[in-house]
Amino acid sequence: MPFKPTQPKQNVSLNYAFTVFFLIALSLTTHTLISHMQLSNHFLLSHIFILYPLFMLGIFSSTNGKIKHLCVAASLCLLILGCLDDRQHNVIPSDVILLAPLCYLVLYPGSLWPMAVAGLLVLFFIPTDPLHIQGDFIGNTFELMTISIFATVSLYYRLRLKTQMERFRIESLTDFLTGIGNRKAFNETLQEIRTQPLNKHHYFSLLIIDLDNFKRINDTLGHQVGDQLLKEISLRIDHVCQQHLQYSSVFRLSGDQYAVIIQDNDIQVASEHLAQLIVSSCTAECTLEHNCYFTTMSIGIALMRDAEHSVSFWHRNANIAMYRAKLNGKNRIQWYDDDLNNEMKRHYKIERELSFALEKNELSLYYQPKVSVETNQIHHAEALIRWLHPELGTIAPDEFVSVAEKSQQIIPIGRWVIEQACQQAKYWHDHNQPICVAVNVSTIQFVYDDIYRIVTELLSKYQLPAELLQLEITETTLMTELQSITHTCHRLRKLGIKIAIDDFGTVYSSLNYLRELPVDSIKIDKSFIDESLHNEESQMIVRTIIQLGHNLGKVVIAEGINNEEQLAILRSEQCDLYQGYLCAKPLPADEFIHLVATNNHSEMHVS
Ligand code: C2E
Ligand code: MG
Ligand code: MG
Predict the structure, then answer these.
(1) What's the 353 CA to ligand 2 centre distance in angstroms?
(2) Last residue of a domain, one of 286, 313, 336
(3) Residue 3 falls within a domain, yes or no?
């Protein structure tokens, strides 16, 4: 595996030095043993010493423990044999005997072997001539033992230090909770891949995996269960990778985010396959402390070859894909591509610059007429927000309202919308064009802002008759805080403000809240109108909503009317108002009022 984070980094130059030293020492020892044995007329014995370097090389190169031990025993026997013989002839120079223990130092670094070998040599090398014991021999023995002890001890501590450093390094690269590689290991691996030859970059891909709604598990079930779940998920991801891919590394980058780097010849197919396997393994039931949990995940995949050989781009691309998977509703696998990149760049720009949009006066309200189905007159409008961005052009609310809701910037924006709408409605009212303006109010505004106070303050500030202001609330908003919203709506309605349920039919169209809520109008969602021409069931739903609304005394409005056929259906079902491109798209205030003037004037003449 080319990029396992836990692999120790070898000091290559030091290893070479040791090997060279070993080979030199070995050849010197062997040469001396053989040539001096020949000198001492032991022709046969000298040939036996040819085996000595073979045994030593056997120890050096073999990974088999038994062979190693055999070679050690045989080499020692040969050395002792040489020493015993030399006691009589005294031909082997002591320097060579000194080199032999140092060879064992290379073979068994940090062990007591070199000292043991030195001791053995001294023991068997004691000359038969007592005169030698007095002089050279004591000096040589002292020299041999001192060097062996010094070399053994210093190497032992060096190795201990190295092992400890390696342990610290591995610990610093390991995620303490799950035992897999952490963010540092991930970054190191990315750097390793970066330094690989460019043609190899084609075979790498990166998967960023983020658990969906993990915070909820942590908040509701506690951090202990959360930790166990994270461990279980990392085990499963690791298991899937090990089972199905030869080259893969798994990391935990942060709380509930994992990364998998894979290498394969058919990288696209391998990545997709692996992502599918991870999803099916991790979304399977998970039993923690006798309870069953299910979790889903969003996965972003990016290929190294799409990242211009930059690992930071590569990481960013996989993140972009993962965030897109989240934005698209989570629980999915998303591949990175250039379109996604542009889309996400735009999204980030919108997210970044939204907070300045209000200050910079870039927001504006457009007005779409709500037309009477029966008379074709316009007395109502819906105020729809637009962001006139200096670079991106006009941005529709679908692109930024949800962003504003997430950051709660919808609160100042929503206040601005209501104020603009009140100001505009008052202006038209004062110019003999009374138009009831509807504004969309988000759940966040209802939950975190004081809508009642804001509306009352603005009504009095602009002296606007309350019946010229309508609030549109979606079903989702109602479901969030039905009781408090019902209470606020009752109070608003007492002021004379009108309330409409927007996009009716798209969520749980509960009859209960139709009874509870003080609503004036129901807006049938555009999707039913789109289908009504070709789908009888949708037409039946439109009919049923209109009848239901009328039976409850509500005004019924149909959204998204694009053509005369759709309008004909509404007419036959006696719908009250319609809104759609058939009459007009949302327009700036001056164009809108111009349309109203010409439309209402001509309709008056027709009727
Ligand atoms: P909505 O309140 O349901 O508004 C109706 C949307 O349908 C508008 O899109 C409108 O332009 C579009 N529409 C109307 N008739 C037709 C038609 O015939 N064909 C087609 N294709 N579309 C039609 P818009 O303006 O993009 O607004 C989208 C949504 O953004 C709105 O849906 C509303 O939920 C939200 N929104 C708009 N302005 C605001 C605002 O000031 N505050 C909040 N909180 N949400 C807003
Ligand atoms: Mg609306
Ligand atoms: Mg709507």
Answers:
(1) 24
(2) 336
(3) no
